[in-house]
Write a structure and sequence with these properties.
With 294 residues, the protein is an all-alpha fold. The protein is built from seven helices and two strands; from the N terminus they run H-H-H-E-E-H-H-H-H. A hairpin with a 3-residue loop joins strand 1 and strand 2. This is Transglycosylase SLT domain-containing protein.
Length: 294
């Protein structure tokens, strides 16, 4: 099973069902899929935190305790996959199925350009840290973030639009985003698997403002190029033959449901669909119209 990372937050708190091993919901964001915010100064004993629905890479689970399993699946199972369906909400299209164009998922020509996506999401990035009671990204930090995504993605041969979409799903681009944790930490802009980059380690003394360009680049590298403990987007794309949506599904949950349907299995069912909508420009900072996790 591949180790995966956890996304972070959304502007609205949509409740997700607890996973078999969770007694309380301590997640940060409905869109990202992470749980258990690390706060050394307080303990969240209530189940009222944001739940991003994310499954932590190092977690193990018993297939008998969940409707999904980590078994590999073959192309012969694709006939059971539900085709993509359109959401009634204006703009957003709710995708289900195996991530292929045959199942209705978008292809690269459908994606907006990197600059178009950046411009559409920049207002979100400039205000996203408020959710964490942290100083919002400064113009310099946002510029450093754009440069880091462009350069690291080029080095890793990863489409920068995909890297950007995953980052927005995980943290909305807040450079001082919290780390999340279960059996290991998931820090930084990409909520990476035990990454070393972070401008908010969970304590007052661990918050960096401004967030140095070197730290921003490390956070991007942790998510795109991977860490010593877990794969990044580069490795997942290679393993999935370049399919963005399968790679996104595994970044969120570690595995793909045996049916091949990216909207099923563990973790955030809306994750791959949300990433697809981010890439085509129909989801920026507003709450996702996806209902797969309802």
């Amino acid at each position: 099973m591949v180790a995966i990372y956890l996304p972070l937050f959304a502007l609205t708190a949509r409740a997700f069902p607890l996973r078999p091993w969770e007694e309380t919901n301590r997640g940060i964001s409905p869109d990202s899929g992470t749980d258990d915010f690390i706060d050394p100064e307080s303990s969240w004993d209530s189940a009222t935190g944001f739940d991003d629905g994310q499954w932590h890479p190092s977690q193990t689970w018993n297939a008998s305790a969940d409707e999904s399993s980590t078994e590999s699946w073959s192309a012969s199972s694709s006939s059971a996959v539900t085709p993509a369906t359109a959401s009634v909400t204006s703009g957003y299209k709710m995708y289900t199925g195996d991530g292929s164009t045959q199942d209705g998922w978008p292809s690269e020509p459908d994606f907006k350009s990197f600059d178009e996506l950046w411009d559409a999401n920049e207002p979100v990035m400039s205000t996203s840290c408020a959710l964490f009671d942290q100083a919002n990204d400064s113009p310099d930090e946002i510029n450093d973030l754009k440069s880091a995504i462009e350069h690291v993605s080029q080095s890793a041969h990863v489409d920068p639009r995909f890297a950007f979409a995953i980052m927005m799903q995980e943290s909305k681009g807040c450079v001082r985003v919290w780390s999340t944790s279960h059996s290991h930490t998931n820090p930084g802009l990409f909520q990476s698997h035990k990454g070393s980059g972070s401008c908010n380690t969970g304590s007052a003394s661990g918050v960096q403002n401004p967030c140095p360009a070197s730290e921003i680049r490390q956070m991007v590298s942790d998510g795109v190029e991977g860490t010593d403990s877990g794969d990044g987007l580069e490795q997942l794309l290679e393993e999935e033959g370049g399919n963005f949506f399968k790679a996104a599904r595994r970044y969120n949950s570690g595995s793909i449901d045996p049916s091949g349907d990216l909207s099923k299995g563990v973790a955030t069912h809306c994750y791959a669909s949300d990433v697809a909508n981010r890439l085509i420009g129909t989801l920026t900072g507003e709450a996702s119209a996806c209902t797969l996790d309802d």
